[in-house]
Amino acid sequence: MFLSLVLIRAAPESSLVTNLPGFNGTFPSKHYSGYITIDETHEKKLFYYFVISERKPSQDPVVLWLNGGPGCSSLDGFMYEHGPFNFEAGKTKGSLPLLHLNPSSWSKVSNIIYLDSPAGVGLSYSKNKDDYNTGDLKTASDTHTFLLKWFQQYPEFLPNPLYLSGQSYAGVYVPTLASEVVKGIKTGLKPILNFKGYMVGNGVTDGEFDGNALVPFAHGMGLISDDLYEEAKSACNGSYWNPVSSTCIAQISNIDKVLNGLYIYDILQPCYHSPEASKSENSTFQLPPSFRQLGETERPLPVRKRMFGRAWPFKVAVRDGIVPSWPQIHGESLPCTNDEFANSWLNNEAVRRAIHAEQESVIGPWEVCSDKLSYKSDAGSMINYHKNLTSQGYRALMFSGDHDMCVPFTGTEAWTRSLGYEITDKWRQWYYDDYQVGGYTQGYAHNLTFLTIKGAGHSVAEYKPKEALTFYSRWLDGKSI
After folding, report:
1. Cα separation of 431 and 480, whole Å?
2. Fewer CB atoms inside 10 A, N or C side of the chain?
3. Do 469 and 415 touch, CB atoms closer than 8 A?
4. Which helix (H) or strand (E) holds 192?
5. In this structure, are residues 281 and 333 in contact, taking their beta carbons and an 8 Å threshold?
6. d(CA 220, CA 225)
7. What are phi and psi of 260, to 5 degrees?
8. Nearest to 51 by CA among 19, 13, 87, 83
9. What pTM was estimated for this model as a whole?
10. Which residue among the candidates 168, 179, 344, 377 is catalytic per the annotation?
11. Rounded to whole angstroms, what are the CA distances from 377 to 134, 315, 319, 382?
12. Could you give the CA distance from residue 293 to residue 281 in angstroms, rounded to a whole number?
């Protein structure tokens, strides 16, 4: 107990969060938030919210959490997924949401940092707007700089195991960042980070694997018929992500029509929209861009606002040098969910003061996904990143909500299997809460684990919080899931 108290007192008191508007009660652990300046000349600053573990903060891992996009705020994960609070609508219209303690918060078993990255995302910013032209490799470098500087402010956490985590486009953020961290460790860059591994949920990984995942997923889920599946497989020779024949394109168009009207981030959830909108040619219910030649170009593209309340995780195809607008890709009138709670809370002056964030008058409004960035997907496939990291002994968990049609589990299952690692834990159920089946898992050599979460969508902890905390805590503790 004495060690825990020393640990808490060592953190910078100027960053301590003492209260949060909408919450009446006592925090179950200490919270800290604020900015880390990663470039003094540009005044480039990344915002973080740090929740100390409710268990054993001096021993529990430090976990960095990144949401996807690219360009979406990790405070989305803090508010809607596995942060310390659940949010409820205010008592009167226009009032701030009410905060209640989240019994499935990941801070139950870990110290966790929610980071807005890169600059221009969420509450992070730069005085030099050129910094908003960025990409995979620069983002990884900047986030590594953040970690080094963050641990200089919180040196008491340096002995703790460090894990990197995220979802969606963080399937790129996490392995590229992990690679930077490992390089820094090898070259003796100070401070030395105690990096142990990483986890990714429904993560973008590889154009071919991700792009070919949707048709088998849709067939397996009973969304397309056997006949339509066989016709598409024959016409496309099993390669759907880059159709080259008119017959294949026609079959993909047929699949697109059949899937129209589904909420792609969780096919079990309803999506409320007008019949007129669903029939529109510009309907939001189009196959994911991953399904349409993901990775066709490395030209930069503006980051789009999130669709249906979740970050669209793929790069869109650029034709004739023109990046299509968000309405051209997705339409505008079909919100399945919204960010009302997050927008009203994070754009409130008192909240900004409480979390030590700049006011809206200085850096603009908080948006779940930034429209400030011009982002280049320049790291390529993540397959070799995963091979290099796992072959060096770093632990890796790839988890997938099995009802996500945006980054289907079928793609993640395929690429993890493609590494050719020996299977050390054959396909089996995993359990939670008195032997309820939580999903399925398969373990490989080199500490690689593939895991599904039964009934979960794209943002696993949002849909299945109890199951998510179960596998998260077991994996971090090195136990069998």
Report:
1. 11
2. N
3. no
4. none
5. no
6. 9
7. -60, 130
8. 83
9. 0.88
10. 168
11. 9, 7, 16, 11
12. 20
Is 400 a known active-site residue? no
255 Cβ contact list (under 8 Å, min separation 6): 215, 218, 224, 228, 232, 287
Check residue 5 and give its pLDDT.
41
- Per the CB < 8 A criterion, the answer to whether 23 and 99 are in contact is yes
423-432 and 436-444 strand pairing: antiparallel
Quote the CA–CA distance of 260 and 277 in Å, as a whole number: 11
**Residue 220, φ and ψ in degrees, nearest 5:** -65, -30
Q: Which amino acid would we find at residue 187?
A: T
Residue 243: the pLDDT is: 86
404 classed as catalytic: yes
Give the DSSP H/E element, type plus range, for residue 45: strand 44-51
* Residue corresponding to tokens 């072959």: 391
* CA 68/CA 406 separation, integer angstroms: 13
Mean pLDDT, 10 residues at a time, the chain of 481 residues? 45 92 96 97 97 98 95 95 93 87 98 98 96 97 98 98 97 98 97 98 96 96 97 93 91 93 90 50 42 35 33 32 29 50 93 98 94 93 98 98 96 97 98 95 98 97 97 97 96
Minimal CA–CA distance to 310: which of 266, 371, 345?
266
Q: Cα(302)–Cα(328) distance, rounded to whole angstroms?
A: 13
257, with CB counted inside 10 A (0-12, 13-18, 19+), is exposed
Give just the sign of the alpha carbon dihedral 481, 140, 375, 321: negative
CB atoms inside a 10 Å sphere around CB 127 = 13
Q: Please confirm, yes or no, whether 356 is among the known catalytic residues.
A: no
Distance CA 167, CA 179 (A): 17
pLDDT of residue 321: 30
C-alpha 131/C-alpha 124 separation (Å) is 11
Q: Collapsing DSSP states into helix, strand and coil, what is residue 381? A: coil
Out of 126, 404, 446, 459, the active site residue is: 404
- Among 206, 377, 458, 459, the active-site one is 458
Pick from 112, 126, 115: nearest CA to 73: 115
DSSP conformation letters of 134-190? EEHHHHHHHHHHHHHHHHHHSGGGTTS-EEEEEETTHHHHHHHHHHHHHHHHHTTPS
> What residue spans define the domains of the chain?
208-340
